[in-house]
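Sample A.
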Amino acid sequence: MAALLFDPNPTVDSRTWAAVVRLGGDGSRIFQTDLFRSPNLDDVDTKGGAASGVLAYIPETDTLVPYFGHTQRYDDGVRHQGGYLATISAAGTQSVISGWFGSHNLSQRILVDGARVVTLGLGDAFPKGIFLNYAEGGRLQPQVIYRLAADGVGSANAKLGGMVDLGNEIALPFITNLSISQDLDAGAWPNTDEAISMQIRDAAANGTDLGLLLAPKGATPSAELMPTWIDLTPSPGARLSRLRSAPYGTDMILLGWAELSGNEWNPNATFFTMVVDKNGAICQPATQLPAGTGWAAGDDIKALPDGSITWANAAGGGIQLVRLVP
């Protein structure tokens, strides 16, 4: 067992460390490796602000791979945000693949492909859009596979839904809002156009469209991909969020999402699942899940070796596991 740990300071911008801990089957600690631990957040090059992220495991090499967003102080006096990607050996030794992968790297996903990993990110500055890379050798250059409207100060018009291994291809679902052009650009910080930025932020917060990108497996794509749009219409006034995906059967994809309505900070959430093939054709239509069986904003869903799909939530005041059997 292993876990990606962040400084528990509830003020994300004040966090000063990130670490990976590996545990034995009995819960005993094998090692804890600091990815970074900064004495302060004022000095140039200090890292902090660890937030969203994922932790992957490569069985072939017994290696852990943390990938997450964080901040770093630059000589312009500003803490900028970017991605952090590293490997941790079985002995607990860290090798940094990139201490600054994508700026800003707003959301992270990872897929293990044999002895390699494929990384997915969402950028609103450098680059702008959804980017995918095989994490191997040299300095990583984020490769945009779908351009998005982005404002350069924290918003890109999408929410990532995961990565599904289909053998020769990887399915990449995402939520966006097609009411604005994906070429809309608020300019470069610190001279962004606030009116355009507001348009982009509003669209990003109110996704209504579900797209599916299909990336060839084996190498980083060299050009942008064309999405397939899933035939999905949310309820009037609802917005799509918490998109999740998992393999379903041998060549299909389970999509799960929440329709949010009402108060922005405490919305009503209704959860749905749908099964599609890699071309976006609907194999099983949208089905509403029973109350109390959805997933929280930061949780993921996993496909188990027997083909079932599971996730956890805190419904009813305790942790419960939900299992979906194809």
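Sample B.
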Amino acid sequence: MSAFLVRRIMHSLIVLFVMSVVIYGLIGLMPGDPVDLMISADPDVTAADAARLRAIYGLDQPLWSRYLNWLSAAAAGDFGYSRLYAQPVWQAILPALSNTLVLLVTSLLLALVIALPAGIFAATRPYSLADYGINLAAFAGISMPPFWLGILLILVFSVILGWLPAGGTAEAAGATGTWERLQFLILPVAALTIAGVGGHTRYMRASMIETLRQEYIRTARAKGLSESRVVLGHALRNAMIPVVTVIALDLGILFSGALITETVFAYPGMGKLIFDAIMGNDYNLALVGLLMATALTLIGNLLADVAYAALDPRISYEELDA
């Protein structure tokens, strides 16, 4: 296992390096640069001033030279300076990162707590009224656009009922109490949870139905084991293997892809931060943010591989270490 983990970590580092080249190149090829934005904001900036600023920021150098300079600095722990936030990149990222982690972990856990039992329940009663009802609810959750769902939650619980704040964070509103802080999380967490429950339910149902058709499940039933022991003790572990893959991929998607939800609820997370950095030509901030999303996806895949061995004893990485 140790040799396998070392190889996977090395592969992940190579992927991060390749992604840094691709992302830096794409951002660098975008029309305009930070100096152009300064010129548009201040018409008194002369051509000489613009040339001097480009020299200061290194924007007069070829793209490959600028990337190598960034890479050497990043290897030493210096990821650059954020032009939009006028502070080092890590200081700009940490608040958004903490907000996103709270949102990601809470919504993902709630989605799994709801979706996995619902998928198992539907799979054990295929084509029944309960199965049809769970499938209908899952399809409804998958089909609802995130922006529409967010706006609907705001209209119902903030505008009409007035129970919850429409958006923002507790820090921005100056809230200090535990319940007051939780109120700002309820609507965005609910939006992401509803959006995720449907897909996970469908995956769990399909995987469990396929597993329950296997010969070893028929053998377990023939031995007189109770249905709950057959489902939870024999079928669940194998049925979870494809679901674990989907969960691992969801980590990276939720980390950087919750832009619509964060925008609707004015929630300052990583998705909105990356979008603002790209639109504002903040190269350093956008690059580090996208690389963090890539790294989280790679970490999720690595954890999924470890989970495979824990779920299925037939899967062993010891042979790969030899």
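B remarks: The first strand starts at residue 81 and ends at 82. The chain has a mean pLDDT of 81.
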